[in-house]
Amino acid sequence: MKNQIIETTEKFVQVELGEDATGHDWFHVDRVRRNALHICKEEMTGDPFIIEMAALLHDIPDEKLNDSAAAGMAKLALFFQTIILPEEVKNHITEIIESISYKGGRKTELETVEAKIVQDADRLDAIGAIGIARAFAYGGKKGQPIYDPSINVREEMTVEEYRKGKSTSIHHFYEKLLKLKDLLNTNTAKKLAESRQQMMALFLEQFYQEWDGQDL
């Protein structure tokens, strides 16, 4: 029964996000799912089914990928009508999805270990080599420049400013990506984040050398 629900969910997500070009495609979702199940196994805690379902569905209602936050949540609710799950399980999955977003660095207290694991899994995919690639894919799709030294890094932001304020893909490293390692919940995720953090630091160092012509 659970395996069938997972398969149905996989197919739904593949259809919804298969053509995405912002770094929120099916391959991202699958990596988050695998990260989450790995963390669950290593930490020996949490409900694997809840974790897998929340990981698979975590980007479906994302307001970045929908006309509005309400439209995204309606899409998730409609999908839940197509599968047989107890209401408390659907509610738990929904609560996880609603609580794990970065939203300009606003700290949200996560209620369950499952939410902490899925959030860590999603944040791991936002850093490292893949995180770098995703940052530029998303920035390009949004029409942001790669870099502009005249723009200041934003320290404190409202959700609206985070979503729509003027920034660049390089600034995104300082406004979000480099902060994620210290915001992780589990020891497993923190260990995995070490080499990914180093990768981003090396990339930025090389970027500025080439930008300034120091490597000529």
From TrEMBL:
Residue ranges of domain HD/PDEase in the record: 21-136
Q: Which residues form a coiled coil?
A: none
Is the keyword Glycoprotein assigned to this protein?
Answer: no
Q: Which UniProt keywords apply?
A: Hydrolase
Q: Which InterPro entries match?
A: HD/PDEase_dom, HD_domain
> GO: which molecular function terms?
hydrolase activity
Gene3D superfamilies reported for this sequence: 1.20.58.1910, HD-domain/PDEase-like
Question: What is the name of this protein?
Answer: Metal dependent phosphohydrolase
Organism from which the protein derives: Neobacillus bataviensis LMG 21833
Q: What phylogenetic lineage does the species belong to? A: Bacteria, Bacillati, Bacillota, Bacilli, Bacillales
